[in-house]
Amino acid sequence: MAPRLPALAKSAHALPVPEVSKRFGTSLNLGLTDAEARQRRARIGPNAIAATRRAGKLTLLLHQLASPVVYLLAAAGGLSFFFGDWQEAAAVIAVLVVNTALGFFTELKAVRSVEGLRALGTHSARVRRDGHARVLAAEDLVPGDIVLIEGGDAVPADIRLIEASNLGADESTLTGESVPVDKSAEPVAEDARHAERASMLFRGTLVTRGSGTGVVVATGTRTELGGVSRLVEQATPDTSPLERRLERLSSQMVWVVLAIATILAGLGVATGKDFRLMTEAGIALAVAAIPEGLPIVATLALARGMWRMVRRNALIERLSAVETLGATTVILTDKTGTLTENRMTVQQLSLPSGDLDGPRPGSDLPPEAERLLRVAVLCNDASLGPGPDLGSGDPMEQALLRAGRSVGLDRAALLRDQPLVRKHAFEAATRMMATVHAVGPRHMVAIKGAPEAVLAASRRASDGARDRPLDEAARELWRRRVEDLCARGLRVIACAERMVADPGSPPFEQLAFLGLVGLEDPARKDVPEAVAACRGAGIRAVMVTGDHAVTARSIALAVGLAGPELRVAEGIPATGLADGLENVAVFARVSPAEKLALVRAYQEKGEVVAMTGDGVNDAPALKQADIGIAMGRRGTDVAREAAAMILLDDAFPTIVGAIREGRVIFDNIRRFVTYLLACNLSEVMVVGLAVMSTLPLPILPLQILYLNLVTDVLPAFALAMGDGQDDILRRPPRNPKEPILGRAQWMRIALHAGLMTATTFGSLAVAEFWLTLDRASVVTVTFLTLAFAQLWQIFNMRASGSKPFRNEVTGNAWVWAALLVCTALLVGPAHLPPIGAVLGLVPLDRTSWALVLSASLAPLLVVQLGTLAAGAFRPSISGGCPT
Question: Domains of the chain: which residue ranges?
Fold first, then answer.
């Protein structure tokens, strides 16, 4: 009979390890089988807690109905009913329905896109199934799974520890205790408080150091985290500063426009115009002038841009990062896996008796080389799968395992002869790792780590046949050998061993130094081009690594960070960071604390800093940076939690691609905001001038509503979908304090709106006084002139340095689709009597159509000719909109 798993979790902390294995029906060495895991998941459910609620369709619909635009449309419909104009009332209701539907479906698409992006950021866990270590989605864990935990992991479930090596966890999210808690595999009292259950790791907490193995005892809502309702109901929607600024702009314009509409309606009545007509005109004008689509289209633009980044392996964790990306001026990048391929191979063994090439399958190794590799394989946390790409763990440790396996040193077989007794996880303080193995009545300690740290702890060098004293002169010779290997671009680690009687003896004392291992991690072939793109975009790329300075210099030269004269700083200079930052291309041997100091130093100089990191201790620097970038493949959960962006492929070119996309998104938003406000302002000016000059209204209230419906949403949406300029990375970063609409954008809005207003009144005058058309035809000509002038306005949104006929707007297929649909919606009503009668539109003859087309094209031609003339007298400046 299957164990009642959920009920067992309550007392797991007090059970001895063998009893935990028995009660949860699992093997500590093999884990569960896939079949058993599937059965348990089907019975218990996924390991998920609904920390954020999915936005419901009803909620989104009610959000549309809470808009000031809806209130104004409802008021217009109510007035029409009051005055007995049933046809116009029905038309207003139809506009209200269509406007609400457009807002609803647009916001639904944007919200679902962002929710889909959030789903990509789910955590994974390293699990032992069927005797093999695998990486699975945390959601797939079930009670009884054997989970392997390391420093930097977010705990994916409630886990009873069965092994622990220097393990500590930050449980502040659960217990409020700010100091990391030491963990062990020993049972504790059954009535122990949660903060005292040292044998347990709880879901949602973070492992700060060490490593361990444990049995999953509770998943999903049955975990301690799942029982804390305030955490389950957490998380308000994430909005970016850019979205909040757009919402404020929309809110401010609502009140300004309402005041203007009220004044204009009052002036119209005062000058003798019909009260009902002017009241409806005032309401329609307010609806037309309010850019209600700004926040929704902006969210859609952000969501689409974020999906484009995901397709390029950059996952945005916080929307605020999108806006900041385009302003980045400095990238502080790690070396391993970011500038290099992170595909390590053992290329060199440096032994007391001399150097050897790296082992190859079938090659014979001398005893001292085999002894060195044996220690490198035993002192290891990685695992190899049946295929070349199926292993898990640190790529460097996987490379050591592959090198050992190639000469018959398989870790599983070695552990059968030399069982693992204790493990001392790698720590930044010691820069070494150790494992303790039983060898007969004694114990062998296998050590690997940074060469300088291992050398400092060693007292002799051993080649297997004899031991030699390791004095300072001998250490200096080894340091030179380290530098020689580093000069070849190799990453170097040292190995040592020690025989002890007590497995609890201090591991890093009186070591026998065995030699060095040189691993090759070649530079990525696509990095030099990306570094050059950074340089062209006004962005400095600076390598910040814990590796040896000579290795870092070699890779920096290979990827083109600087020329042969590049300056390499080892750690933070003794003189501090106040001066000379601009002259350093590589910071080597940098500690996590120094990374944080570097980020602050660049920020104090006014730089916008993007910082990469993967470890627990990188979290402070990632949080401090303007854009914290965590590694998706080798990064810890702690680093991912602190970061604003995750590189799914850990590659430097992905950062550059994300910066480009950030610039494109900002330009697109600025472009469609400028377009919308220019169109809306032209409608305000047309009606306002007519009222103040006592002229008849050139367009009717329902026509204003229909025009707002047609020319606002689709063209703005099309501009938001643009792919950006080809040369967008050949211009300097923008000032992060630069507003969406600066002085230049407001001047363009006023200019374009003024031109559209002038041509609208011009077509009105020609139609009435030259062509002597009837009133209905005059209104139709005026309406279509303003409508098509707004459509052609989309081509004025090209950048000033772009070509008139081949640019980011004309090359946008969405723009042409929007123009085609909008043209059909503008031309169709006049030829469909029922709709034409409601809107007050009639069919036009060829002469009238010639007037509409020539007048509506005039603003476009004036702006384009002015842009060309300006470009002839000054250098063109690329930008999101024409200057």
Answer: 5-47+125-232, 242-307+661-873, 314-340+524-650, 346-513
Nearest to 150 by CA among 785, 715, 639: 639
Q: Would you call 735 exposed, middle or buried from its count of C-beta atoms within 10 A (0-12, 13-18, 19+)?
A: exposed
Helix axes 68-82, 275-289, angle to 10 degrees: 160
CB 189 within 8 A of CB 124: no
End-to-end CA distance of the chain: 76
Fold agreement (5-47+125-232, 314-340+524-650): no
Number of Cβ within 10 Å of residue 134's Cβ equals 18
* DSSP one-letter string for 688-746: HHHHHTTPPPSS-HHHHHHHHHHHHHHHHHHHHT----TTGGGSPPPPTT--SS-HHHH
Q: Is pLDDT larger for residue 451 or for residue 362?
A: 451
Active site residue: 145, 158, 334, 618, which one? 334
Average pLDDT over residues 491-518: 92
Q: Which amino acid is at 689?
A: L
Tokens describing residue 435 = 């494992």
Torsion of CA 658, 660, 664, 666, to 10 degrees: 70
Architecture of 346-513 per CATH?
A: 3-Layer(aba) Sandwich (3.40)
Mean pLDDT of 731-753: 85
DSSP lists the bridge partners of residue 496 as: 447, 513
Question: Who contacts 867 (Cβ-Cβ below 8 Å, separation ≥6)?
Answer: 800, 804, 882
Could you give the CA distance from residue 376 to residue 734 in angstroms, rounded to a whole number?
Answer: 49
Distance CA(334)–CA(544), nearest Å, equals: 5
Q: Does domain 5-47+125-232 have CATH number 2.70.150.10?
A: yes
User: Rounded to whole angstroms, what are the CA distances from 519 to 80, 398, 487, 489, 529?
Assistant: 80, 11, 12, 9, 25
Q: How far is residue 135's CA from residue 122's CA, in Å, rounded to a whole number? A: 13
User: Using CA atoms, how far apart are residues 781 and 766, in angstroms rounded to an integer?
Assistant: 10
Q: Is 618 annotated as catalytic?
A: no
The confidence band for 554, taking pLDDT boundaries of 50, 70 and 90, is confident
CB atoms within 10 A of CB 503: 15
Q: Which of 440, 438, 426 is nearest to 396 (CA)?
A: 426
Indicate the SS3 state at residue 85.
coil
pLDDT value at 585 more than 80: yes
* Structure tokens belonging to residue 626: 């303007």
Q: What are phi and psi of 389, to 5 degrees?
A: -110, 20
What integer pLDDT is reported at residue 458 of this predicted model?
A: 92
Among the listed residues 758, 579, 796, 792, the one whose alpha carbon sits nearest the alpha carbon of residue 681: 758
Tens-place pLDDT, residues 349-390: 999 888 888 888 777 888 899 999 999 999 998 888 766 555
**Quick count: other Cβ atoms within 10 Å of Cβ 827?**
16
User: Measured between alpha carbons, how far is 181 from 201 in angstroms, rounded to an integer?
Assistant: 10
**3.30.1330.30, 2.40.420.20, 1.20.1110.10, 1.10.3720.10: CATH of 242-307+661-873:** 1.20.1110.10
Q: Residue 666 in contact with residue 326, Cβ under 8 Å?
A: yes
Cα distance between residue 522 and residue 533, in whole Å:
21
Please name the residue that has the structure tokens 């700010």: 178
Q: Which fold has domain 314-340+524-650?
A: Rossmann fold (3.40.50)
Q: Are 645 and 315 in contact (CB under 8 A)?
A: yes
**CA diameter of the chain:** 114
Element (H, E) at 325: helix 320-325
pTM of the model: 0.74
Q: Residue 315: name the closest of 727, 646, 619 by CA.
A: 646
* Residue 200: closest CA among 210, 211, 219, 215: 215
Helix (H, G, I), strand (E, B) or coil at 496: strand
